[in-house]
Amino acid sequence: MSHPHPELGPPPELSDGALRIVALGGLGEIGRNMAVFEYEHRLLIVDCGVLFPEPDQPGVDLILPDFEYIRDRLDDIEAVVLTHAHEDHIGAVPYLLRERRDIPIVGSRLTLALIEAKLTEHRIQPVKVEVVEGERRRFGPFETEFLAVNHSIPDALAVAIRTPAGIVLHTGDFRMDQLPSDGRLTDLGGFARLGAEGVDLLMSDSTNAEVPGFVTSEREIAPVIDEVIRTAEKRVIVASFASHIHRVQQVIDSAEKHGRKVALVGRSMIRNMGVARDLGYLRVSPGVIVDSKEIEGWPAEDVVLICTGSQGEPMAALSRMANRDHPIRVAEGDTVLLASSLVPGNETAVNKVINGLSRWGARVVHKGNAKVHVSGHAAAGELLYVLNLTRPSNFMPVHGEWRHLRAHAKLAALTGVPDDHIVIAEDGVVVDLVDGRARIVGAVPAGYVYVDGTSVGDVTDFALKDRRILGDEGFISIVVVVDTGTGKLTAGPEIHARGSGIDPDRLVEVLPQIERALQEHAADGVVDIQQIRRVVRRTVGRWVSDTYRRRPMIIPVVIEV
Amino acid sequence: MSHPHPELGPPPELSDGALRIVALGGLGEIGRNMAVFEYEHRLLIVDCGVLFPEPDQPGVDLILPDFEYIRDRLDDIEAVVLTHAHEDHIGAVPYLLRERRDIPIVGSRLTLALIEAKLTEHRIQPVKVEVVEGERRRFGPFETEFLAVNHSIPDALAVAIRTPAGIVLHTGDFRMDQLPSDGRLTDLGGFARLGAEGVDLLMSDSTNAEVPGFVTSEREIAPVIDEVIRTAEKRVIVASFASHIHRVQQVIDSAEKHGRKVALVGRSMIRNMGVARDLGYLRVSPGVIVDSKEIEGWPAEDVVLICTGSQGEPMAALSRMANRDHPIRVAEGDTVLLASSLVPGNETAVNKVINGLSRWGARVVHKGNAKVHVSGHAAAGELLYVLNLTRPSNFMPVHGEWRHLRAHAKLAALTGVPDDHIVIAEDGVVVDLVDGRARIVGAVPAGYVYVDGTSVGDVTDFALKDRRILGDEGFISIVVVVDTGTGKLTAGPEIHARGSGIDPDRLVEVLPQIERALQEHAADGVVDIQQIRRVVRRTVGRWVSDTYRRRPMIIPVVIEV
């Protein structure tokens, strides 16, 4: 198996007849999935998603793939194929289309409808190419074929990409639910047919590669949800992802069965379910869904609310209910159902929400105490089926952190893929498929691009480092006004501190030390602003470190008059 | 069941013959356990621990109970009973003893040895009172009796407190391992005897009240650990808590069996295992443990390292190994064993460590993929035994977040404790046991006291709010120098920003706006520093919000010359 090579240089020129694959996201992380395929100077992109920030990326709203690798080659892009409409696969599309508006966007009917609703908010009208499972479609030198896969959102697709370099099968996200409520099975027959034809490279979803066995059918959740709603004494509040149409369908069906009305809460929930209803993916009897404003005054036992916020997002309705900062006042007898996964990184936030709701007396049902969620990703036992059916010459695990990629690579090895035909790549690593072999040939930049407020890319890793220091330690700023002529102190030093936790009365203790240090400096007779800054920073830094064992950011400001 | 009353006022004077119980920590949180018992103006304290900070408490090292409630009454304290030597039960003792050095510290032999080793680092020599299970001891009006309990550290105790107000049984932390390796069982016979005598109030460990069933015996882990060490190709690195003597014993036994030497890494690991070895709690054959420096050059297959860092602490050896920032260079074939729980809140940090180690090719064994940890706290099925054996007149769940306290209260109700005899209290809530009934009678302050560097309590919630803003958004500071006589700008405005992610070239765009705003202000002819600050803050704030939709902290500094 190939290993990470921090010393990888830029890749060589792409040779004739070779297919190049560069993931700009999704390898070594779960999120911002984006794979760029290149053949004879033409590009095909599969997925273009966002990554959600971790605590060490404070204040960041979203993280995008770095488009630098393709920025000079936007006109070479034949199309962007979207395997399904989850944010980690489509969220960065608006940002890519800002760079070139008319890139054709390829996807299933629901995927296109959901991306279009999203793009409308960005005031972009996309060029759409609707495809359906079983269909073949050529984009420049790329002959694509789409296959149905089952996932936690309807209408997901895998894509096979044929070029003279060989057949690449990219599974997208999938699971293997054998009794799906909409009848849409992952097309193992199609995978087998491709396997018989010869898959030169399999790129397969690694999310659950560490999880042994098989994922339970979505169908088995329905009776659990139904029982929760049937036995609920008062209000029922269900939190789920705004894209999980099947789960929402289950809740609505059960609510109707038990004579409760349903209100949808949250902008993305209302938008997506509207789209799903219009296209027939969500079926609701007339009068069952009512406006959430209307429902506030209703008897609690007649109501089911379906909202976002299952990941503990602080501004979402559910968090605000937990803090009693919402018109819906959760109380003893209410039931809250977290019908979703717990995305790694959100544990603390979700725990806070559960505790807040428990404090007010609500019963909280979650995947830790009831079977109210199944994963959307195939587990190890199922991944083996795909490996055995496709019998790939080369294997590249995708969609996973290192632990998942390694685990998936091990599964591939167990099914007989030779170790030296398994490529574990990180974001930016360049893989060439040539003469039937996939090999790492170099690397390109694939860093994080941060979205904060309205700006994209202005917040850098350098700014985040500053934020981490400021957030952990606060800052002390010292202003001195010096006379340019004499180098003497005209006013100040004035000292300000925020977030440092240092008593202002003690803070002034350092002022005489600064004055003394500046006098010693001025004795040289030379006025050197940089030097004054250094003297101030060193004096204050040493004092804080000696007195408090702390390292706040120290900002000397020198003003000349 | 009693519910949280945010409107609780100060408690009334304690009536004669009544026992008062105030938890200054541990209720509504897992950590900083501390219960203050009061009878006839005398105080007995059970445990005095720390809480570890969450991400929204940035830069904080530790959180202590607020001693304000007892600060004027330090001389009334008869003793501090420590149930066992975990940090969340003993960590705040050094800070309490700073306020009064000669408070008697009561505990088992191991507990006292470990707190003494800790206090030595704080240069405090405690007054120790060693007790053993089965022993009765009087402290002022409090007749205490100690009972053995089994936990994830040896020599843990429950304590029964007798006063004329009745019998209170405080379980401390416990589990019910029926085949413990050291033969120390939780004393259910003693619990039953107290139950027969009449337990007026049971205060019992709620940590695992949500977890159905029973905790596996520690004994069942040994073969799993042994198999990991037996089959390891190269180096074995085990991360565990520095207090988990039984787990470390298992690793050492297995290492010796397979001909490997063991090195201990990390200050607290070395200190605690030294104490445990001296007292006979850890048994090691001569020559098995070697110095960690010595082991660096050894053949990887002859080595087991036991280190701290199982919670992903960034400065611990394990995190540094994952980042290749440690002399031990983890490589393909190495095995890392996380033989510990995953403390809620640490998921992201631990995930990062697992990914880092996986990246370098190590096999990472953890509780997610092997049975290498069992909890130290009794699960719901076991808690029912304690409730049924003690048949308490009143019940107060302790040691838990709201979700755990609620779940434990529900178990108590199922065993027949009447709802109105179950008291769910938060930190600071005052509970009086009088005439056989426990009731909430008021509340006292029980906020967080933050330790940061060498300072205790200087970092306030206000400073933390500043840190959160600074950490999320950075700051912009604007310095203006004004002539006190004329109110005119003498120098500046100078603008500095850190962590804001705003391009410095664009930042200067706001300068003319500030000057214009100040000119308009100066037209009044009045120099009002506060007013100038307001004008500057408003001008810059509006510009940033309009241009970037951001809210960095804005710091106007006005200097008069």
Please give a structural write-up.
2 copies of one chain form a homodimer. The first copy, chain A, has 561 residues and is of the alpha/beta class. Chain A folds into 3 domains: 272 residues, Ribonuclease Z/Hydroxyacylglutathione hydrolase-like (Metallo-beta-lactamase, Chain A, 4-Layer Sandwich); 148 residues, Rossmann fold, CATH 3.40.50; 100 residues, Ubiquitin-like (UB roll), CATH 3.10.20. Chain A is 30% helix and 24% strand. The first copy, chain A, contains 17 helices and 26 strands. In chain A, the strands form 5 sheets. Chain A has an 8-stranded mixed beta sheet. The first copy, chain A, has a 6-stranded mixed beta sheet with strand order 8-9-10-11-12-19. In chain A, helix 5 links the parallel strand 11 and strand 12. In chain A, 54% of the residues are buried. The model of chain A has no long low-confidence stretch (mean pLDDT 93).
Q: In brief, what are we looking at here?
A:
2 copies of one chain form a homodimer. By secondary structure, chain A is α/β, with parallel strands linked by helices. In chain A, helix 4 (109-121) crosses helix 8, helix 6 (222-231) packs across helix 7 (245-257) and helix 16 runs antiparallel to helix 17.
